[in-house]
TrEMBL record:
InterPro entries: Pho86. Keywords: Membrane, Transmembrane, Transmembrane helix. It holds the Pfam family Pho86. This is Inorganic phosphate transporter PHO86. The chain crosses the membrane at residues 54-72, 105-125.
Length: 286
């Protein structure tokens, strides 16, 4: 089995390695780190979707309305003409020294916290489909990478391809044509896989960027590679979620155009929040 490059996404990059940026196809020694990258990228999407739902206008309005309702229920009776008969300052002083003020304030704070927490948990639960998708990556290697990376990792490519068994050579050549990895300090930080969909079209099936490098717009470099692999009259497409606005902006800047939008099979996410799966396409031009 090929010795695997660093596959940890929690540990920082090794500073004793040369600070060089390299590109290459997915080789056997990159099988594990690339798989981990793909899984983590899907977990990142789950986190992003949870934040999108929680920060949406609908949820914000719900939280404000709930707080206002609780506040009115517990503190409405305090705001009477009698309490404020001697002015605002005296009225607030009377409210603060009410025998039930501390109890009602505690109720308001605790109830608001519970509603806030319940809303966050609900948002987290409704985005779990991305968690399951991430955990299923090892079971669907060919869907993402075009071949079984677990089996591919058992190969060892230490010399020129002419000394490599025919089946391994075929897999390496497949990866040379369909995959692109960017390494920094000898650690994979981003990759893309583009597979044949039909005679004249490709589909980007695997894609991931290490979280700390997402904002560096390294996605644009991955898309540039995908476009350069096209021949005249060929096209490539990629499916993203409508909440991935950062990636969508890069897709548009790279010449991709929206082809279709499909609502999620979820009443809450698809109907209430309008989250869609969007397919963008790039068509070769001279």
């Amino acid at each position: 089995m090929a010795a695997q490059k660093s596959a940890s996404l929690d540990a920082p990059l090794e500073m004793n390695k040369p600070s060089t940026i390299e590109s290459m196809p997915i080789l056997p020694d990159l099988a594990e780190p690339v798989t981990n990258l793909q899984m983590d990228y899907l977990f990142y999407k789950k986190s992003l979707l949870t934040k999108t739902v929680f920060k949406s206008k609908a949820v914000a309005s719900l939280l404000v309305a709930a707080f206002a309702g609780l506040f009115y229920r517990k503190f409405g009776p305090y705001f009477t003409p009698y309490n404020f008969r001697n002015g605002t300052t005296e009225g607030l002083h009377n409210i603060y020294h009410s025998p039930f003020f501390i109890q009602d304030a505690f109720y308001l704070v605790s109830s608001t916290f519970m509603i806030f927490s319940a809303t966050l948990v609900a948002a987290w639960l409704h985005t779990n489909f991305l968690k399951y998708e991430a955990e299923e990556v090892p079971k669907h290697m060919e869907q993402y990478f075009g071949l079984d990376l677990e089996d591919y990792a058992k190969s060892s490519v230490k010399s020129k391809l002419r000394r490599v068994p025919a089946d391994v050579k075929q897999k390496v050549k497949f990866m040379e044509k369909h995959s692109f990895v960017i390494q920094y300090r000898e650690t994979p930080i981003a990759f893309i896989v583009q597979q044949k969909k039909s005679d004249s079209s490709f589909n980007i099936t695997g894609l991931a960027v290490r979280r700390v490098y997402i904002k560096s717009k390294i996605l644009a470099d991955l898309l540039d590679w995908a476009k350069k692999e096209l021949s005249p009259k060929e096209s490539t497409s990629i499916t993203v979620y409508s909440f991935e606005t950062f990636d969508i902006d890069i897709l548009k800047e790279s010449g991709f155009k929206l082809l279709k939008k499909e609502p999620l099979d979820s009443f809450v996410l698809g109907s209430l929040f309008g989250i869609t799966r969007d397919t963008y396409i790039y068509e070769w031009s001279s």
